[in-house]
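Regression test attached.
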Amino acid sequence: MKKLLIAVLLMNGIALSANAQKFMTRTGKVTFFSSTPLENIEAYNNQVAGVIDAKTGDVAFIVPIKGFRFEKALMQEHFNENYMESDKYPKADLKGTIVNLKDVDFNKDGNYNVKITGKLTIHGVTRNVSLPGTITIKGDNITASSKFSARTADYDIKIPSLVAGKIANEIEVTVNSILKKM
Amino acid sequence: MHIRHLLYFTILICSTVPRQLKAQTTDTTRNEEQLMDILNSEDSKPAKEYTTATFKTTRIGNGHSIENTPKGVLDFRVSHRFGYLNQGIKDFFGLDNATTRIAFDYGITNWLMVGVGRSSYSKEYDGFVKLRLLRQRENGGFPVSVSYMGAASVQTYERPSEIPDTLKYYFSNRVAYVNQILIARKFSNTLSLQIMPTHVHYNMVNYSKDQNDVIAIGIGGRLKLSNRISLTAEYYYQLPGTQLHDPADATRLTKNPLTLGIDIETGGHVFQLLFTNAPDITERNVIGQTTGAWDKGDIHFGFNISRVFTIVKPKGFENSRNKIW
């Protein structure tokens, strides 16, 4: 009986520690790219916070809008002041779940294609999204990457006709973040 | 013995039950919220970021605003001031006459900018440096931004005929200096205010009764009407006793300059349309040598155009797909 008790307690302990397997970053990278015949605009952000729960497959990412860096300083100001209104909407975030979690073995190094469904909030507008992604596992680190496009109109980002030719309707968003075991 | 077994059993149950309870409550959205909480909790200490975009551009109207051109950015500026509106249809409300300043400003670092310009009004060459000393921060940080602006200018008129031939007219007689402290606060997204204690030193003044130093307190502000349009105002109050006399009338003092404007921003340009009683664009003329009176209709229409070019690519864009020219 004593042995059984110890065994059960031990197993509980192991299960609980497996429960707590989360991966996190505060220096994740997101870039976006807008391409039109008149102008290409690229910006990057190295201040992305993200966490992936290996047990439930839940993922959460927070992107501080003021963290985006542009090549042209004036563009960066316009991005914050006129388009994203970052004083009003300081963060974009993604709350979602890895749909095909069973395909990913977090204990084995390798590349895994994943599909994430969830809610993406940009500029105060929340939309249901389904995003393709890749998870690369190497030891205690996982690299999460994803490339998808977002329509400015879907997130109520107004672009005046004067500059409409210079800003794409669909913006290519690339996520590439290394998350460490917590 | 039975009691002991019962005890073991109880411990066993107790150790597994919480786990089952936990498993039941881990529904997805709940867990996502928990993840969000993890992310938010650690960056909950609000970032004391620098306040940005206190003004649209580096000038409020005639004078400097707290803004600097960022590092590696060249700002090409063209300013015009037309004649007095009260000249009526004869001079097409002043549009027949225009003075021009063409200038280049450049950001050496994010806290140091320099500029040079040439104005047609008194055939003047000017140069300035603007240094950021303190910056306003959000979320309970420092409440104001403070900058220093220092300028020197040389007017290249011919030797004034009033000076007797027996006196030498030195190059230094053409020079004037400006020292300014700019103190600004962005109160909200729509309202920014600025105070500018100013000292202007003229190496030579028109009258022996004038002193060479003018002290003025400037006040300026911006009211944002929309994301791309704002109203601006700027006024310099010259301290009594330091004011110069009107070059055209020795019994009158110069006037305090008032400038009312509207900023319109389009892509890479900022247009500033303004009405002012100052005939020229440099501080030397605007602050200490304005003679027109608003109440008599001595108002100039004018505009500033600013076009910025990124000369030095910032870090992180070595392989970018941007096409910036």
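Expected vs. actual: identical. Strands of chain A lie at 22-35, 40-53, 58-64, 69-70, 91-98, 110-122, 125-138, 141-151, 170-181.
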